[in-house]
């Protein structure tokens, strides 16, 4: 039994691409099995010994990683057809052979690494940050109601991994939809006392081209989010807020809240 465990291997089929403009191809690898192995540790094993299943030396597989504990969002890829974090994808819970592909929504840099600039540009478009006036201490600031603080905390768990954009059918190369991550961050920052200073600008961005109207309510985003963020709830809340704001604008209200 011990001998059988020693000789057990895992087979990987990895979609590779040598450069952004080159053709993609598949390459198979077979590595020794270890208990509690995840996809990242398997890729690191391949990097240490870049020999494919045919016994040929090859270039090490390229991918992104950072924290290795599902916090940074860097290691997103498509694993057995599902976009997710490779650091928390345990080999024992995956069907063999394990298929690894880069996310299709973003341009490939090399192999499993993609350029997520589209997502970060969307976050810039909606001003997904809280403005500060210098670095001096402003004190504790205005308190938020506990009910609001609780759902705002859930939205703050976003790690910009891009999985929700990969799962969304409305985010593709033919559409300029900013995606669920940016929309959820609008709701988060509009809810904070300091962040609400840019509320009008954010609402103008999400009601404009590529904003709320591009959401098809497929709900793939909320089902795929590794942090369980209520993305569709945020989108629905923004839709209601956009409707109220449009009425206020039409009737000439001076109120922004």
Automatic annotation (TrEMBL):
UniProt enzyme class: oxidoreductase
Gene Ontology molecular function: any one: 3 iron, 4 sulfur cluster binding
Cofactor(s) needed for function: [2Fe-2S] cluster; [3Fe-4S] cluster; [4Fe-4S] cluster
SUPFAM superfamilies in alphabetical order: 2Fe-2S ferredoxin-like, alpha-helical ferredoxin
TM region positions: none
InterPro entries named in the record: 2Fe-2S_ferredoxin-like_sf, 4Fe4S_Fe-S-bd, 4Fe4S_Fe_S_CS, Beta-grasp_dom_sf, Helical_ferredxn, SDH/FRD_Iron-Sulfur, Succ_DH/fum_Rdtase_Fe-S, Succ_DH/fum_Rdtase_N
Matches recorded under NCBIfam families: dhsB (TIGR00384), PRK08640.1 (NF006391)
Family: Belongs to the succinate dehydrogenase/fumarate reductase iron-sulfur protein family.
Name listed for the protein in its UniProt record: succinate dehydrogenase
Natural source organism: Tenuibacillus multivorans
């Amino acid at each position: 039994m011990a001998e059988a465990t020693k000789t057990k291997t895992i087979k990987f089929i990895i979609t590779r691409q040598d450069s952004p403009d080159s053709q993609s191809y598949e390459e198979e690898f077979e590595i020794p099995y270890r208990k509690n192995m995840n996809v990242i540790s398997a890729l690191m094993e391949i990097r240490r010994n870049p020999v494919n299943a045919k016994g040929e030396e090859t270039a090490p597989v390229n991918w992104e990683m950072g924290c290795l504990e599902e916090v940074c969002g860097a290691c997103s890829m498509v694993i057995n057809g599902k976009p997710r974090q490779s650091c928390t994808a345990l080999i024992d819970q995956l069907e063999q052979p394990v298929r690894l592909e880069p996310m299709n929504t973003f341009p490939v840099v090399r192999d499993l690494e993609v350029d997520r600039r589209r997502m970060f540009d969307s976050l810039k478009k909606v001003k997904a940050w809280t403005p500060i006036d210098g670095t001096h201490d402003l004190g504790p600031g205005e308190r938020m109601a506990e009910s609001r603080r609780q759902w705002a905390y859930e939205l703050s768990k976003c790690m910009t991994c891009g999985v929700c954009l990969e799962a969304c059918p409305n985010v593709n190369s033919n559409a300029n939809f900013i995606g669920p991550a940016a929309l959820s961050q609008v709701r988060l920052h509009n809810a904070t006392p300091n962040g609400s200073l840019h509320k009008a600008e954010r609402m103008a961005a999400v009601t404009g081209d590529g904003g709320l109207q591009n959401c098809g309510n497929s709900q793939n985003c909320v089902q795929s989010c590794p942090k369980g963020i209520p993305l569709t709830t945020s989108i629905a809340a923004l839709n209601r807020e956009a409707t109220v704001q449009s009425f206020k604008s039409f009737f000439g209200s001076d109120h922004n809240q």
